[in-house]
Specification:
With 288 residues, the protein is mainly beta. The chain has a single domain (19-286), classed as Lipoprotein localisation LolA/LolB/LppX (outer membrane lipoprotein receptor (LolB), chain A), CATH 2.50.20. It has helices spanning 65-69, 81-98, 190-196, and strands at 19-20, 23-24, 104-115, 120-131, 135-140, 146-151, 154-159, 164-169, 197-203, 212-219, 227-235, 240-248, 253-258, 264-265, 283-286. The strands form two sheets. Strands 3, 4, 5, 6, 7, 8, 9, 10, 11, 12, 13, 14 and 15 form a 13-stranded mixed β-sheet that branches. The chain has a two-stranded antiparallel sheet with strand order 1-2. A hairpin with a 2-residue loop joins strand 6 (146-151) and strand 7.
């Protein structure tokens, strides 16, 4: 993907532009950019997540062309808000119980991002590594090669093509940042989730005979985050998360489908995966 001047839009991670001389130069993960001059307020974007990834996760977008072409088969459960939240709470508690004793998770995924601003659809693949309580590494495969790391109070995004590491300090005073969004599907405390999110449910689209539901989470305090909602498709029969969808403020949407055939639980994960160690020629840029 060609490099362009400007502000970088992100997926799975909080990203902002880095100003150099008169204008910004950043090209990453297949996103188009635009010129930004000094003095213009920088915009922080997020995605692949989330709760604790709410810092990292701010991305998101519009429905794919296929979904737009035909009326969605999904429907909002026609019950009172209190009842709907109870249904969502029950499903979240089933996930919490199912994965309470699981300490590590590894799973490959496919991601589709539809950028509202540029009208661009980007396909990517990767693997995420989760180690409870709060460490996460996401490796995107070429040609979108990027590493996202949450560890030691920071979020890092390493972009090999640019030889650059973007570093963000995690605001631990923000309650919505306390739970990594991947934990939503693998053992997040339901009480903590519902403290910062309104929860509802809607029917899922079944590719199999297994029952599925979308859990829809919207921030109780929208000013604390930079995304509209996080949705999680759950196989309610097996208590397994299948997909995540994050919708950004501008309507950009990222859909992450887990490749569950290769899901690995409680396998040993090398500690080096969660250390902020990058090539010596990579420039570290502190983002605000």
């Amino acid at each position: 993907m060609a490099k362009e001047e400007g502000e970088d839009k992100t997926r799975f991670s909080n990203a902002a532009a880095y100003s150099h001389n008169r204008r910004l130069k950043t090209s990453v993960q297949g996103y188009k950019t635009k010129t930004v001059f000094p003095g213009e307020k920088m915009k922080t974007l997020a995605i692949f997540g989330m709760l604790s990834l709410a810092i990292v996760a701010k991305a998101v977008a519009a429905e794919t062309e296929t979904r737009e072409a035909a009326p969605s088969p999904r429907r909002i459960v026609q019950e009172t808000p209190a009842t709907v939240e109870k249904v969502a709470e029950k499903i979240l508690k089933s996930l919490e119980s199912r994965y309470a004793e699981v300490n590590t998770v590894k799973c490959p995924f496919k991601q589709t991002t539809v950028d509202q601003t540029f009208g661009e659809k980007i396909e990517s693949r990767g693997v995420f590594y989760l180690k409870k309580p709060n460490r996460l590494r996401i490796e995107y495969a070429p040609p979108q090669a990027t590493t996202v790391l949450i560890a030691e109070g920071y979020t890092y995004r390493y972009i090999p093509k640019l030889k650059q590491v973007e570093r963000f300090r995690i605001d631990e005073t923000n309650p919505v940042i306390q739970t990594n969004y991947m934990l939503l599907g693998f053992g997040a405390a339901t009480e903590d989730v519902l403290r910062v999110y309104n929860a509802s449910v809607r029917d899922g689209e079944n590719a199999s005979d297994s029952p599925t539901k979308w859990i829809v989470l919207t921030p109780r305090h929208p000013r604390d985050v930079a995304f509209k909602s996080i949705e999680m498709l759950v196989n309610t029969e097996r208590s397994v998360p299948m997909e995540f969808r994050v919708t950004q403020l501008d309507g950009t949407q990222a859909l992450v489908k887990l490749e569950l055939d290769d899901l690995t639980l409680d396998a040993p994960l090398d500690e080096k995966l969660f250390r902020p160690s990058f090539p010596s020629d990579a420039q570290i840029v502190d983002m605000r």
